Structure prediction request, 200 residues.
Amino acid sequence: MINCPKCASEVLVETPALGNIPLDVCPGCSGIWFEKGELEALLRQSQGGAQADLALIDPKPEGHDCPACKAKMSRGGLVNPLLLVDKCQVCEGVWLDARELALVKKLLGLAGGESSVKVDRPAPAPAAPQGKDAKLILVKMVAAVCALAGLAGVSYQMYLYFSPAEAVSRAPSIGMGVLSVLLFAGGILALNWGKEDRWR
Prediction:
């Protein structure tokens, strides 16, 4: 993944639109990144194999950062002192702003072929499913145990209350009944709260 040297937030999109040479184009500013030898190969296709001198004229170290190796690119004339482009002296890649390819071809007296490229931004990758939060799982497990314990306690107290006195060995307890209701209600509440991701 290579970022545009001018538009920091844009990722260059690879396209074979120019002479079937896979170039990297910015979907924002339509600038083109030529890796070492790609611009020469494209121009050779346009002029039938002839060579072009693409050394920078009067280069100055004031260009953008190289999108490939991050070194500071030199800014200088390409073919003509007035056509200023950025070229990396380390990896020898060349950055052409929008419409500069057309100017290069015009200055070299070349015709034919595409002179500019437009690309669409790639569709965003689908978000990876989030892994289950261990804290949330633990809370749900404890809440489920509390709810089940509360339900069992309430059921047992109701059984004691509605059964004949001679059929049971103990009397229902108000304290146990209240505790069971609180456990059941608290467990259910915690389960629902966890579903809304409030425990994250």
